[in-house]
Amino acid sequence: MNVLWIYAHPDQASLNSALRDEGLAALAEAGHPYRVSDLYGMGWKPTLDRDDFTGDHDDPAGIGQASGHAYERGALSEDITAEQEKLDWADAVVFQFPLWWYAPPAILKGWIDRVFVKGYAYGVTDPDHPGRTLRYGEGVLSGKRVLVLTSIGGPEAAFGPRGINGQLDQVLFPLLHGTFWYTGMSVLPPVAVYSANRLDDQSFRTAADAVCRHVAAIGETRPIPYRSQNGGDYDEELVLRPELSPGGSGLAVHASALAHEEAQGEPQDQPATASADSAFAVSNVDVSMTNRKSTSPATTRS
Ligand SMILES: Cc1cc2nc3c(=O)[nH]c(=O)nc-3n(C[C@H](O)[C@H](O)[C@H](O)COP(=O)(O)O)c2cc1C
């Protein structure tokens, strides 16, 4: 499985860089070819604007339409087309970043803003049903898997079901559901390293092993069972039908209740997190971590 690794951290000597090195080694060991986009290292331009295309800067359409027109006429800037070519090559994408203010660093948001151009990543209609836009489970990027790997300052419990920060899959909902699922990608449960500023060597090793397990299994992990827009679960106003998740509201209703019930019978199918404090708590697949070799020094954070 070809893997594109999008890396968004400014420091080469950081927890994230050590985890990236571990993860890439695990991909190689598992036989997955990979390519890396190191956004800070590349000097990635993070802002979407009309310098993103040549020619018709005066296109009267809004910026989203105008960049879509530029995509159609092959006028997007080289840095964008290079990333789109990598994405075309990839069967799976890893997005790795530290959580900053409940979100990825701006440079990563800017990668998505500029690379996920209209007509390339979204805004495409179903050729068999003109007028029906392909999104939320269908779309140009469907078939690709996506894994978010993030480090987080707060402790795991504070991102749990009653944690003050909100549950991690809901904190990341704009990215997981609003961006990746929207464009049709299969979204794997995110992997988080909590208490990331306070890892001792042993905690780092536990977290790194968990990261390695997940990236090596990127082709097998069961995606989050988000509901598809055009699968019949939503009415014509895109509101969840009342007989589904009856009485429920909020972000959680957009994942299939049936799948959740199935998952409850099989704890290993719950969304996965890698804890810095404890051994890998929940896993989607049974991948042994006993023979994982360390490939980068443990990083002690204070
Ligand atoms: C600008 C900024 C914003 C942050 N926002 C959050 C946050 O919203 N929640 C949280 O738990 N930690 C937050 N943190 C802590 C980082 O997630 C943590 O320092 C990082 O994951 C550690 O990884 P690193 O050593 O590779 O940078 C923030 C850190 C910075 C610098």
Provide structural commentary:
This protein has nine helices and eight strands. It is α/β, with parallel strands linked by helices. It has a single domain, classed as 3-Layer(aba) Sandwich (Rossmann fold). Strands 1, 2, 3, 6, 7 and 8 form a six-stranded parallel sheet that branches. Strand 1, helix 1 and strand 2 form a beta-alpha-beta unit. The chain starts with a strand and ends in a 37-residue tail after the last helix. The C terminus is likely disordered. The structure holds flavin mononucleotide.
Secondary structure topology:
Blueprint: E1 3-7, H1 15-29, E2 34-38, H2 39-42, H3 63-72, H4 78-89, E3 92-98, H5 106-115, E4 125-126, E5 129-133, E6 145-151, H6 168-171, H7 173-181, E7 186-187, E8 191-193, H8 201-216, H9 257-265
Parallel strand pairs: 1-2, 1-3, 3-6, 6-7, 6-8
Antiparallel strand pairs: 4-5
Bound molecules: flavin mononucleotide.
Short descriptors:
single chain, 302 residues, alpha/beta, Rossmann fold, 6-stranded parallel β-sheet, two-stranded antiparallel sheet, 9 helices, 12% strand, disordered C terminus, binds flavin mononucleotide
Summarize the model shown:
The chain has 302 residues and is an alpha/beta fold. The protein contains 9 helices and 8 strands.
- At CATH level 3, the topology is Rossmann fold
Number of strands: 8
Question: Which oligomeric state applies?
Answer: single chain
Write the H/E string, N to C: EHEHHHEHEEEHHEEHH
Low-confidence stretches: 259-302
Helix content class: 25-40%
CATH architecture: 3-Layer(aba) Sandwich
CATH class membership: Alpha Beta
Largest sheet: 6 strands, parallel
The CA-CA distance between the termini, in Å, is 37 Å
- The CATH superfamily is identified as Flavodoxin domain
Measured on Cα atoms, how large is the radius of gyration?
20 Å
The helix/strand class is: alpha/beta
Determine the strand fraction and express it as a percent band.
5-15%
The small-molecule ligands in this entry are: flavin mononucleotide
Helix segment count? Answer: 9
Indicate how many domains the architecture comprises: 1
Instruction: Indicate the overall shape.
Output: globular
Mean pLDDT: 86
